[in-house]
Amino acid sequence: MSQKVAVLGTGKIGEALLSGMIRGGWNPSDLLVTARRPERAEELRTRYGVTPVGNPEAAKSADTLILTVKPQDMGALVEELAPHVPADRLVISGAAGITTAFLEERLPAGVPVVRVMPNTPALVDEAMSVISAGSHATAAHIETAEQIFGSVGQTLRVPESQQDACTALSGSGPAYFYYLVEAMTDAGILLGLPRDKAHDLIVQSAIGAAVMLRDSGEHPVKLRENVTSPAGTTISAIRELENHGVRAALIAALEAARDRSRELASGNGN
Ligand SMILES: NC(=O)C1=CN([C@@H]2O[C@H](COP(=O)(O)OP(=O)(O)OC[C@H]3O[C@@H](n4cnc5c(N)ncnc54)[C@H](O)[C@@H]3O)[C@@H](O)[C@H]2O)C=CC1
Ligand SMILES: O=C(O)[C@@H]1CCC=N1
Protein backbone atom coordinates (compact mmCIF):
# COMPACT_ATOMS: atom_id res chain seq x y z
CA MET A 1 0.00 0.00 0.00
CA SER A 2 1.32 3.46 -0.83
CA GLN A 3 2.31 5.84 1.93
CA LYS A 4 0.06 8.86 2.47
CA VAL A 5 1.57 12.20 3.38
CA ALA A 6 -0.37 15.20 4.69
CA VAL A 7 0.89 18.79 4.62
CA LEU A 8 -0.84 20.69 7.42
CA GLY A 9 -1.01 24.47 7.01
CA THR A 10 -0.14 24.64 3.33
CA GLY A 11 1.16 28.18 2.92
CA LYS A 12 4.30 29.29 1.06
CA ILE A 13 6.72 26.62 2.26
CA GLY A 14 4.05 23.90 2.43
CA GLU A 15 3.07 24.55 -1.19
CA ALA A 16 6.71 24.69 -2.31
CA LEU A 17 7.23 21.26 -0.76
CA LEU A 18 3.99 19.85 -2.13
CA SER A 19 4.70 21.01 -5.70
CA GLY A 20 8.21 19.56 -5.55
CA MET A 21 6.98 16.22 -4.22
CA ILE A 22 4.60 15.96 -7.18
CA ARG A 23 7.36 16.89 -9.65
CA GLY A 24 9.50 14.26 -7.91
CA GLY A 25 6.96 11.52 -8.66
CA TRP A 26 4.62 11.46 -5.64
CA ASN A 27 1.10 10.59 -6.67
CA PRO A 28 -1.28 13.49 -5.85
CA SER A 29 -3.84 10.93 -4.69
CA ASP A 30 -1.44 10.02 -1.85
CA LEU A 31 -1.15 13.65 -0.74
CA LEU A 32 -3.53 15.37 1.66
CA VAL A 33 -3.47 19.07 2.52
CA THR A 34 -5.03 21.21 5.20
CA ALA A 35 -5.59 24.95 5.04
CA ARG A 36 -7.38 27.48 7.19
CA ARG A 37 -9.48 28.99 4.41
CA PRO A 38 -11.75 26.83 2.19
CA GLU A 39 -10.78 28.92 -0.90
CA ARG A 40 -7.14 28.07 -0.28
CA ALA A 41 -7.97 24.37 0.06
CA GLU A 42 -9.85 24.46 -3.26
CA GLU A 43 -6.98 26.32 -4.92
CA LEU A 44 -4.59 23.53 -3.87
CA ARG A 45 -6.98 20.83 -5.09
CA THR A 46 -7.37 22.54 -8.50
CA ARG A 47 -3.67 23.30 -8.88
CA TYR A 48 -2.22 19.94 -7.79
CA GLY A 49 -5.04 17.37 -7.65
CA VAL A 50 -4.38 16.80 -3.94
CA THR A 51 -7.15 16.17 -1.40
CA PRO A 52 -8.01 18.88 1.13
CA VAL A 53 -9.09 17.53 4.52
CA GLY A 54 -9.47 18.82 8.08
CA ASN A 55 -6.56 18.57 10.51
CA PRO A 56 -8.07 15.68 12.55
CA GLU A 57 -8.78 13.67 9.39
CA ALA A 58 -5.21 14.22 8.18
CA ALA A 59 -3.93 12.93 11.52
CA LYS A 60 -6.10 9.82 11.25
CA SER A 61 -5.48 8.89 7.63
CA ALA A 62 -1.96 9.98 6.61
CA ASP A 63 1.15 7.96 7.55
CA THR A 64 3.29 11.11 7.77
CA LEU A 65 2.15 14.55 8.91
CA ILE A 66 4.23 17.56 7.84
CA LEU A 67 3.41 20.63 9.92
CA THR A 68 4.16 23.85 8.03
CA VAL A 69 2.28 26.44 10.07
CA LYS A 70 4.03 29.41 11.67
CA PRO A 71 5.74 28.72 14.99
CA GLN A 72 3.15 30.97 16.68
CA ASP A 73 0.34 28.69 15.36
CA MET A 74 2.02 25.42 16.25
CA GLY A 75 0.64 25.13 19.80
CA ALA A 76 -2.99 25.45 18.63
CA LEU A 77 -2.46 23.04 15.72
CA VAL A 78 -0.87 20.34 17.89
CA GLU A 79 -3.59 20.73 20.51
CA GLU A 80 -6.18 20.10 17.78
CA LEU A 81 -4.24 17.15 16.35
CA ALA A 82 -3.10 15.35 19.50
CA PRO A 83 -6.31 13.39 20.26
CA HIS A 84 -6.28 11.97 16.71
CA VAL A 85 -2.61 11.03 16.25
CA PRO A 86 -1.94 7.29 16.60
CA ALA A 87 1.39 6.31 18.18
CA ASP A 88 2.86 5.10 14.87
CA ARG A 89 2.36 8.40 12.98
CA LEU A 90 5.50 10.21 11.89
CA VAL A 91 5.20 13.94 12.63
CA ILE A 92 7.60 16.24 10.79
CA SER A 93 7.80 19.90 11.77
CA GLY A 94 9.09 22.48 9.29
CA ALA A 95 8.70 25.44 11.65
CA ALA A 96 11.53 27.69 12.74
CA GLY A 97 12.45 27.37 16.39
CA ILE A 98 9.89 24.71 17.37
CA THR A 99 11.79 21.89 19.07
CA THR A 100 11.05 18.19 18.87
CA ALA A 101 10.59 18.33 22.67
CA PHE A 102 7.83 20.98 22.27
CA LEU A 103 5.92 18.61 20.00
CA GLU A 104 6.70 15.42 21.94
CA GLU A 105 5.30 17.00 25.12
CA ARG A 106 2.00 17.78 23.38
CA LEU A 107 1.56 14.62 21.26
CA PRO A 108 0.65 11.15 22.59
CA ALA A 109 3.61 9.42 24.27
CA GLY A 110 6.06 7.81 21.88
CA VAL A 111 4.97 9.55 18.66
CA PRO A 112 8.09 9.95 16.50
CA VAL A 113 8.96 13.56 15.63
CA VAL A 114 11.49 14.84 13.10
CA ARG A 115 12.45 18.52 12.80
CA VAL A 116 13.28 19.85 9.34
CA MET A 117 14.29 23.32 8.18
CA PRO A 118 13.79 23.60 4.41
CA ASN A 119 13.98 26.74 2.26
CA THR A 120 11.96 28.23 -0.59
CA PRO A 121 14.23 27.08 -3.46
CA ALA A 122 12.18 23.89 -2.99
CA LEU A 123 10.10 25.56 -5.71
CA VAL A 124 12.90 24.89 -8.21
CA ASP A 125 14.14 21.61 -6.67
CA GLU A 126 17.19 23.37 -5.17
CA ALA A 127 16.15 23.40 -1.51
CA MET A 128 18.54 22.89 1.37
CA SER A 129 16.73 20.96 4.09
CA VAL A 130 18.35 20.32 7.45
CA ILE A 131 17.02 17.32 9.37
CA SER A 132 17.17 16.28 13.06
CA ALA A 133 15.59 13.37 14.90
CA GLY A 134 13.47 13.73 18.01
CA SER A 135 13.81 11.28 20.87
CA HIS A 136 11.42 8.64 19.45
CA ALA A 137 12.47 8.93 15.78
CA THR A 138 14.31 5.94 14.31
CA ALA A 139 16.68 5.72 11.34
CA ALA A 140 13.68 4.73 9.21
CA HIS A 141 11.84 7.93 10.21
CA ILE A 142 14.85 10.05 9.26
CA GLU A 143 15.04 8.21 5.94
CA THR A 144 11.36 8.98 5.30
CA ALA A 145 12.05 12.67 5.94
CA GLU A 146 15.07 12.51 3.63
CA GLN A 147 12.98 10.86 0.93
CA ILE A 148 10.29 13.57 1.16
CA PHE A 149 12.60 16.59 1.37
CA GLY A 150 15.13 14.98 -1.00
CA SER A 151 12.50 15.30 -3.72
CA VAL A 152 12.94 19.10 -3.60
CA GLY A 153 16.72 19.42 -3.21
CA GLN A 154 19.59 18.54 -0.89
CA THR A 155 19.25 17.27 2.66
CA LEU A 156 21.68 17.30 5.58
CA ARG A 157 21.39 15.59 8.99
CA VAL A 158 22.46 17.74 11.95
CA PRO A 159 22.13 17.46 15.73
CA GLU A 160 19.06 19.38 16.86
CA SER A 161 21.31 21.74 18.84
CA GLN A 162 22.44 23.15 15.46
CA GLN A 163 18.95 23.69 14.02
CA ASP A 164 18.62 27.35 15.08
CA ALA A 165 21.98 28.16 13.47
CA CYS A 166 20.97 26.28 10.29
CA THR A 167 17.69 28.20 10.22
CA ALA A 168 19.73 31.43 10.22
CA LEU A 169 22.03 30.17 7.44
CA SER A 170 19.95 28.19 4.98
CA GLY A 171 16.32 28.61 6.13
CA SER A 172 16.52 32.40 5.84
CA GLY A 173 19.55 32.31 3.52
CA PRO A 174 17.76 32.88 0.20
CA ALA A 175 16.38 36.18 1.55
CA TYR A 176 19.90 37.55 2.06
CA PHE A 177 20.82 36.82 -1.55
CA TYR A 178 17.60 38.48 -2.82
CA TYR A 179 18.41 41.47 -0.63
CA LEU A 180 21.91 41.70 -2.14
CA VAL A 181 20.51 41.47 -5.66
CA GLU A 182 18.03 44.25 -4.85
CA ALA A 183 20.79 46.47 -3.42
CA MET A 184 23.19 45.78 -6.30
CA THR A 185 20.43 46.52 -8.82
CA ASP A 186 19.93 49.89 -7.08
CA ALA A 187 23.66 50.46 -7.50
CA GLY A 188 23.25 49.78 -11.22
CA ILE A 189 20.56 52.49 -11.36
CA LEU A 190 22.93 54.91 -9.63
CA LEU A 191 25.56 54.06 -12.24
CA GLY A 192 23.07 54.95 -14.99
CA LEU A 193 21.87 51.53 -16.17
CA PRO A 194 18.18 50.80 -16.87
CA ARG A 195 16.65 48.72 -14.05
CA ASP A 196 15.85 45.68 -16.19
CA LYS A 197 19.39 45.49 -17.56
CA ALA A 198 20.94 46.00 -14.11
CA HIS A 199 18.70 43.20 -12.78
CA ASP A 200 19.69 40.81 -15.58
CA LEU A 201 23.43 41.53 -15.14
CA ILE A 202 23.30 40.91 -11.40
CA VAL A 203 21.09 37.82 -11.57
CA GLN A 204 23.28 36.12 -14.19
CA SER A 205 26.39 37.05 -12.18
CA ALA A 206 24.76 35.49 -9.11
CA ILE A 207 23.91 32.30 -11.03
CA GLY A 208 27.43 32.06 -12.45
CA ALA A 209 29.00 32.64 -9.04
CA ALA A 210 26.67 30.08 -7.40
CA VAL A 211 27.49 27.39 -9.97
CA MET A 212 31.23 28.04 -9.54
CA LEU A 213 30.87 27.88 -5.74
CA ARG A 214 29.12 24.53 -6.09
CA ASP A 215 31.10 22.95 -8.95
CA SER A 216 34.63 24.40 -9.15
CA GLY A 217 35.97 22.78 -5.97
CA GLU A 218 37.67 26.11 -5.19
CA HIS A 219 37.46 27.95 -1.87
CA PRO A 220 35.35 31.17 -2.05
CA VAL A 221 38.44 33.21 -1.14
CA LYS A 222 40.30 31.84 -4.19
CA LEU A 223 37.30 32.51 -6.43
CA ARG A 224 37.15 36.10 -5.19
CA GLU A 225 40.90 36.56 -5.60
CA ASN A 226 40.58 35.41 -9.22
CA VAL A 227 38.20 38.33 -9.86
CA THR A 228 40.35 40.85 -7.97
CA SER A 229 43.01 42.21 -10.34
CA PRO A 230 45.94 44.23 -8.91
CA ALA A 231 45.04 47.93 -8.80
CA GLY A 232 41.78 47.00 -10.57
CA THR A 233 38.11 47.68 -10.08
CA THR A 234 37.13 44.86 -7.74
CA ILE A 235 39.55 45.77 -4.96
CA SER A 236 38.14 49.31 -4.97
CA ALA A 237 34.70 47.82 -4.30
CA ILE A 238 36.00 45.36 -1.69
CA ARG A 239 37.66 48.23 0.23
CA GLU A 240 34.27 49.97 0.43
CA LEU A 241 32.56 46.76 1.60
CA GLU A 242 35.17 46.46 4.36
CA ASN A 243 34.90 50.19 5.23
CA HIS A 244 31.13 49.77 5.63
CA GLY A 245 31.48 46.68 7.80
CA VAL A 246 29.51 44.39 5.50
CA ARG A 247 31.20 41.23 6.82
CA ALA A 248 30.48 42.25 10.42
CA ALA A 249 26.90 43.16 9.45
CA LEU A 250 26.35 39.70 7.95
CA ILE A 251 27.75 37.98 11.03
CA ALA A 252 25.50 40.09 13.28
CA ALA A 253 22.50 39.52 11.01
CA LEU A 254 22.80 35.75 11.10
CA GLU A 255 23.37 35.81 14.85
CA ALA A 256 20.11 37.80 15.18
CA ALA A 257 18.27 35.24 13.03
CA ARG A 258 19.67 32.40 15.17
CA ASP A 259 18.53 34.21 18.33
CA ARG A 260 15.05 34.81 16.91
CA SER A 261 14.76 31.11 16.06
CA ARG A 262 15.59 30.32 19.70
CA GLU A 263 12.93 32.79 20.87
CA LEU A 264 10.32 31.12 18.67
CA ALA A 265 10.92 27.84 20.52
CA SER A 266 8.19 28.78 23.01
CA GLY A 267 5.65 28.66 20.19
CA ASN A 268 4.08 31.99 21.14
CA GLY A 269 6.46 34.27 19.25
CA ASN A 270 7.19 36.53 22.25
N1 LIG B 1 8.96 30.83 4.10
C1 LIG B 1 10.16 30.24 4.25
O1 LIG B 1 11.14 30.54 3.55
C2 LIG B 1 10.34 29.16 5.26
C3 LIG B 1 9.39 28.92 6.24
N2 LIG B 1 9.60 27.92 7.14
C4 LIG B 1 8.63 27.67 8.19
O2 LIG B 1 7.43 27.28 7.57
C5 LIG B 1 6.33 27.70 8.35
C6 LIG B 1 5.36 28.43 7.45
O3 LIG B 1 5.96 29.55 6.88
P1 LIG B 1 5.34 30.18 5.56
O4 LIG B 1 4.99 29.10 4.61
O5 LIG B 1 6.29 31.25 5.17
O6 LIG B 1 4.01 30.84 6.18
P2 LIG B 1 2.56 30.94 5.55
O7 LIG B 1 1.82 31.91 6.40
O8 LIG B 1 2.64 31.17 4.07
O9 LIG B 1 1.95 29.47 5.76
C7 LIG B 1 1.38 29.00 6.94
C8 LIG B 1 -0.03 28.51 6.60
O10 LIG B 1 -0.56 27.81 7.70
C9 LIG B 1 -1.95 28.04 7.73
N3 LIG B 1 -2.43 27.64 9.06
C10 LIG B 1 -2.17 28.22 10.25
N4 LIG B 1 -2.78 27.53 11.24
C11 LIG B 1 -3.45 26.51 10.66
C12 LIG B 1 -4.27 25.47 11.13
N5 LIG B 1 -4.52 25.32 12.44
N6 LIG B 1 -4.77 24.59 10.25
C13 LIG B 1 -4.52 24.69 8.93
N7 LIG B 1 -3.77 25.68 8.40
C14 LIG B 1 -3.23 26.57 9.26
C15 LIG B 1 -2.07 29.51 7.41
O11 LIG B 1 -3.36 29.84 6.98
C16 LIG B 1 -1.02 29.64 6.30
O12 LIG B 1 -1.58 29.41 5.03
C17 LIG B 1 6.89 28.55 9.48
O13 LIG B 1 6.88 27.78 10.66
C18 LIG B 1 8.30 28.87 9.05
O14 LIG B 1 9.17 28.96 10.17
C19 LIG B 1 10.69 27.10 7.07
C20 LIG B 1 11.63 27.29 6.12
C21 LIG B 1 11.56 28.35 5.16
O1 LIG C 1 11.52 34.00 8.45
C1 LIG C 1 11.16 32.95 8.97
O2 LIG C 1 10.86 32.90 10.17
C2 LIG C 1 11.11 31.67 8.14
C3 LIG C 1 11.99 30.60 8.73
C4 LIG C 1 13.15 30.48 7.80
C5 LIG C 1 12.76 31.29 6.66
N1 LIG C 1 11.64 31.90 6.84
Please describe what this structure looks like.
With 270 residues, the protein is of the alpha/beta class. It has 2 domains: 156 residues, Rossmann fold; 90 residues, Orthogonal Bundle (ProC C-terminal domain-like fold). It has 12 helices and 8 strands. An 8-stranded mixed sheet has the order 3-2-1-4-5-6-7-8, with helices on both faces. 1,4-dihydronicotinamide adenine dinucleotide (NAI) binds next to helix 1 and helix 4. InterPro entries: 6-PGluconate_DH-like_C_sf (IPR008927), NAD(P)-bd_dom_sf (IPR036291), P5C_Rdtase_cat_N (IPR028939), P5CR-like_CS (IPR053790), P5CR_dimer (IPR029036), Pyrroline-COOH_reductase (IPR000304). Belongs to the pyrroline-5-carboxylate reductase family.
Low-confidence stretches: none
Strand % is 5-15%
Q: How would you write the strand order of the largest sheet? A: 3-2-1-4-5-6-7-8
Major sheet summary line:
8 strands, mixed
Key traits:
NAD(P)-bd_dom_sf; P5CR-like_CS; elongated; Rossmann fold; binds 1,4-dihydronicotinamide adenine dinucleotide; binds (2S)-3,4-dihydro-2H-pyrrole-2-carboxylic acid; 12 helices; 270 residues; ProC C-terminal domain-like fold; 8-stranded mixed beta sheet; cytoplasm; 54% helix; alpha/beta
